[in-house]
Specification:
The complex is a heterodimer of chains A (about 280) and B (about 475). In chain A, the strands form 3 sheets. Chain A has a 7-stranded antiparallel sheet. A 7-stranded mixed sheet of chain A has the order 11-10-9-8-12-13-16, sandwiched between helices. In chain A, strands 14-15 form a two-stranded antiparallel sheet. Helix content of chain A is about 30%, strand content about 35%. Chain A is globular and about 60 Å long. Chain A has helices at about 20-25, 70-75, 110-120, 140-150, 170-175, 190-200, 240-245, 255-260, 265-284, and strands spanning about 1-10, 15-20, 35, 45-55, 60-65, 80, 85-90, 100-105, 125-135, 150-155, 165, 185, 205-210, 225-230, 235-240, 245-250. The two termini of chain A are about 30 Å apart. In chain A, strand 9, helix 4 (about 140-150) and strand 10 form a beta-alpha-beta unit. Chain A is of the alpha/beta class. Chain A contains 9 helices and 16 strands. Chain B has 18 helices and 16 strands. The longest helix of chain B has 19 residues, at about 450-465. The model of chain B has no long low-confidence stretch (mean pLDDT about 95). The chains are: A alpha/beta (about 280), B alpha/beta (about 475).
Chain lengths: ~280, ~475
């Protein structure tokens, strides 16, 4: 059992939790993920690590309430326990030797982008951050990004906060001004990452994406998280859990990944509703 | 006087048309009368060739003798002298190619039903006794076992019996390895696995779940923590795919994923939090035991039609004969000498947002014929030109094997693997790294529960000897 030592609502749909998991905290690196189960009958879900404190032995996760499991997780409170918390899994984001990096985060993806930006900043790397959200109420981690970025662009789709537009707009501006980076690292919804890759591609700057497909075990056993890379005209199957979650954005078949991500949409919607109804009933 | 009936006592089982719709165990097991009658068929012959046929060398005639005497607990004690998981082995061992294949009675008629008797003894013990195997006084040595599948549990059990302090590290949230995530409930009820694991715990074995060795801790860190020897039984790894178009369509699973969803995550239960595709028409590609498990699971989940698609003929099917027969009885259709070329996915030309887009609609196959034997002596299947045809399916489960998991190898300096990724070991299970031993699928690639147990046993012996040099 793993204790929730801190819980904080970042906005109406995004929650931060600090979980006591000393073995995971001792090893965690930016870009890696964990697998958790909320309770004994629960499903296993992967969540990327949003932070860690080796001394305290805690790992921070930030999650969006999108389905039955994240709904159930969000109903847990400080001091309560979750059933399973295993990791750190996947490979760490490669940041060694980088001097000038652009981080592009979208929505709850910013939670995963932040520890990478922070680590780069601590290394003395110049950090340009672009973070995008649907609307003002969903903006998270703005102050945190400000503290570790040499330049920060906050975008909202509806213009209710920061600058109106998607994350590609400031990228295109910077590129047209002749700015360049050692690497662009992007984390967010698949469709956003696909467009970021499209925007970066003409510059030839290496562009890393963080994939978050459906997973079961997370340890390289089930193959559910497979995705297709186009490497030199050849199609290669990779597993996000052991080969990733970071991949060369130019190689990823995003359309396939988006399609695979919707496999259980009907089931998930029903399960989420059923869970919400259950909690409502309990509340009454 | 021996029972000279040429046939084994038949195994009482659920009728095929009933069991095809439930997840309850197929076979009920022998009654005491049947067990006694079957035990009378053993001639207790002098050379007892059956023992040599058993990877863990259970003293078979001796335990059968105890059954004849009506001393079932005595029979259990003889089995557990050499085997850690009798209730499991009695169910999933391929006895027909091991102990029973050597039985003298098999020369004229059917061999003694050794597997059925082993199961009877283990079930009798589980129902009547809480006694745990004796363990020696603690000897002060600490051993780490990586993986709680058949090889790890066997190694842990044997070492615990000898007085070692053993910790088993399991990556998943539940102990048992392939016995819980892979083999379905109808072939191996999970309560039986749990009972065997509880016995190990009662013997003092510590089981730590959610510990991914290679990630959470490395093998070297285990030594720093005070473990003096490490056994790696991490099992087979990444599922293989065919590399044909359409394999990433929605509705294409690896057998590992499909079975893990159903077995470990209980997706077969109506209230499970883990989804799985139920119903429709299902094709399972491959002919091993795992393929049979996947096909029969799909059937029980409500599929209207299930095919086994295998590129060779019935004779070459690598699955156990009993599993193939069970599958056939249940109505699974075998499309033999048949190889998939492409999986078709739905694409609505009018509407790219159609939720049906990307789901499997069918599979293109080609007929095969058997050509010249390959290096292993199996006749190589070759496509029959122009014989392509489509089968109408909604779900495809790929069950063509696995390749070893890279997590431990990539984080353990000095641990060498062969070109297929299997850990290199000596005949005693020693790896190329000092005090590190390995066995089971992590060494051999996908094989059987009992061969993994045999490897766990050999390694336990070698570990014990390494401390007593």
């Amino acid at each position: 059992m793993y204790r929730i030592v801190k819980k904080e609502s970042l906005n109406s749909t995004v929650t931060l939790m600090k979980i006591e998991a000393p073995f995971v905290a001792a090893k965690a690196q930016p870009g890696q993920f964990i697998i958790l189960r909320v309770d004994d009958e629960g499903e296993r879900i992967p969540l990327t690590i949003a932070g860690y404190d080796r001394e305290e032995g805690t790992v921070t996760i930030i999650f969006q309430i999108v389905g039955a499991t994240t709904e159930a997780l969000n109903h847990k409170n400080e001091g309560e326990y979750i059933c399973d918390f295993a990791g750190p899994l996947g490979t760490a984001t490669e940041i060694d030797g980088l001097k000038n990096v652009c981080i592009v985060g979208g929505g709850v993806g910013c939670a995963i982008a932040y520890p990478i930006a922070k680590k780069l900043h601590e290394m003395g790397c110049r950090v340009t951050s672009v973070i995008g959200f649907r609307t003002k109420d969903l903006v998270i981690l703005e102050d945190e990004f400000k503290a570790v970025s040499d330049e920060l662009f906050v975008m909202t789709d509806d213009g209710s906060y920061g600058t109106q537009g998607n994350v590609c707009a400031p990228l295109n501006d910077m590129f047209s001004q002749g700015k360049t980076f050692d690497k662009v690292i992007t984390i967010g919804p698949l469709i956003m990452m696909k467009f970021v890759v499209g925007a970066v591609k003409p510059t030839g700057i290496p562009c890393v994406v963080s994939m978050n497909p459906i997973m079961i075990d997370g340890t390289g056993m089930c193959g559910g998280c497979r995705l297709t890379l186009n490497q030199d005209g050849k199609k290669v199957v990779k597993f996000a859990c052991v080969d990733g979650p970071d991949f060369n954005g130019y190689e990823v078949d995003f359309d396939e990944a988006m399609s695979r991500g919707t496999m259980y949409r009907g089931f998930e919607r029903q399960a989420h509703e059923a869970t919400c109804n259950l909690f409502k009933k309990e509340a009454e | 006087m021996a029972n000279m009936n040429p046939k084994k006592n038949p195994m009482p089982s659920q009728a095929p048309e009933v069991r095809a719709h439930n997840f309850k165990e197929v076979a009920y097991g022998y009654s005491e009368e049947m067990a006694l009658d079957e035990a009378m068929r053993c001639l207790n012959c002098k050379n007892h060739p059956c023992v040599a046929g058993c990877p863990v060398n259970i003293h078979i005639p001796a335990f059968i003798e105890k059954i004849r005497e009506g001393d079932f607990e005595g029979a259990y004690k003889i089995i557990t002298k050499t085997s850690t998981l009798p209730a499991v082995c009695g169910r999933v061992c391929p006895q027909e190619s091991q102990c029973e294949s050597k039985c003298v009675r098999g020369l004229k008629g059917e061999p003694v039903g050794i597997g059925r008797l082993e199961r009877f003894v283990a079930d009798w013990h589980n129902a009547h006794s809480d006694e745990i195997p004796e363990t020696a006084e603690p000897n002060g040595h600490k051993v780490a076992v990586v993986g709680s599948g058949p090889s790890g549990l066997t190694c842990a059990g044997d070492l615990a019996k000898k007085g070692y302090s053993v910790t088993v590290f399991e990556a998943l949230h539940k102990a048992g390895g392939v016995l819980v995530y892979g083999i379905p409930e109808f072939r191996l009820p999970k309560t039986i696995v749990q009972k065997e694991i509880d016995t190990l715990k009662a013997m003092g074995v510590d089981i730590e779940t959610n510990m991914i060795i290679g990630k959470t801790l490395t093998v070297d860190e285990l030594f720093h923590m005070g473990y003096e020897a490490v056994f790696i039984g991490s099992g087979a790894g990444l599922p293989m795919f065919m590399g044909i178009p359409g394999e990433s369509c929605k509705g294409v699973y690896s057998a590992n994923e499909f079975l893990t969803r159903s077995n470990l995550m209980k997706a077969y239960k109506d209230d499970s939090a883990t989804p799985i595709m139920k119903g429709g028409k299902v094709a399972v590609v491959g002919g091993g035991n795992v393929a049979m498990d996947a096909a029969r699971t799909a059937l029980r989940l409500g599929a209207e039609k299930v095919y086994i698609v295998y590129r060779r003929s019935l004779e070459e099917l690598p699955a156990r004969k009993e599993e193939v027969e069970h599958a056939m009885e249940e109505g699974i259709e075998f499309r033999l000498l048949c190889n998939p070329l492409e999986i078709h996915g739905y694409k609505n030309p009018e509407d790219p947002r159609d939720p049906k887009n990307g789901f499997v609609t069918g599979m293109r196959c080609i007929k095969m014929e058997l050509g010249e034997p390959d290096e292993r002596g199996r006749r190589r299947p070759v496509p029959v030109e122009g014989s392509e045809f489509d089968i109408d399916v909604d779900c495809v489960i790929i069950s063509i094997g696995t390749s070893p998991n890279p997590l431990i190898k990539s984080t353990t300096a000095g641990l060498e693997t062969n070109k297929r990724g299997g850990i290199i070991v000596t005949e005693n299970g020693e790896t190329t790294k000092a005090n590190v031993f390995a066995g089971g699928d992590a060494v051999t690639g996908a094989a059987t529960v009992i061969s993994a147990m045999g490897a766990g046993k050999i390694a336990a012996k070698a570990i014990d000897e390494s401390f007593n040099k």
